[in-house]
Amino acid sequence: MIKGIIFDLDGVLVSTDEMHYQAWKRLAEELGITGFNREDNRRQRGVSRMASLEIVLEKSDRTYTDEEKIELAERKNEYYLELLEQMDDSAVLENVKAVLAGLKKRGLQLAVGSASKNAPIILQKTELMPLLDEVSCGLDTTRSKPDPEVFLVAANKLKLPAEECLVVEDSAAGIEAAVAGGMKSLGVGPFHQSLGADYEAENLNHVTDWESILMN
Ligand code: B16
Ligand code: MG
Prior knowledge:
216 residues; six-stranded parallel sheet; 9 helices; binds 1,6-di-O-phosphono-beta-D-glucopyranose; binds magnesium ion
C-alpha cells in the first residue's frame, strides 16, 4: 500500500525545460559551440548540472579542466537564475495544484525528489511549498539519478519505507533511480511510454486510476 508520493520537480510539477535550454544555449554560444540543440537538451532532463554540462561540451573542439567546468556550470546557473526571476505559478503544469490537494486529502504524504539545487527557489516562486510535506533536492545529495539517493532521502524525511513510496518521474534516469531504490514508479511527460515505469500517464492531470495505483 502506497503511503507517500515523491514527485520529481522539473517536467512533473513544473515546466523549466525551456529556461534550462535557453541558459545552456547562451553558455554554448559564448563558448563557440553552435550545434547545441533541443535533442541535446532532451538528454539533460533529470540529469545533474555537471552531467548536463558534459552533454554541452560533447560538441566542443577543446577540452576544459575541472576548475573551468565548475566556472562554466556556475555561469550557466547565473543565466538560469536570471530566467527564474520571471517565474511565477504559471510555470506549474496543468491542474497540478488540484491533484496535489486531492492526494493530500486522501491522507498521502507528499514530497519532492529533484536533482535541482534550485528546487527551493522554484517551489517558493510557484507557491507549491504549502502543498508538500518534504523536499529532497540536489542540495541534500551527492549522487545524481539514476542513483536512488534523492528518493531515499525523500522517503527518509517522510519516515516511510521505500516500498510504501511511489515515485513520479518524467526521465528514464529517474525511473531507474526509483527501481534501484525499491519504489514503485509512475512515468509522465512526453516520453511516458518509453520510460519503463510501473504505471504511465501523459501527465498528472491524466491519471484516472489513483485508487489502483495506491493499493498496490
Ligand atoms: P540545477 P528534476 C533536474 O530537475 C532537471 O531536469 C535537469 O535538467 C537539471 O540539470 C537538474 O535538475 C539540475 O538542476 O542546475 O537547477 O541544480 O527533473 O530532477 O526536478
Ligand atoms: Mg524531471
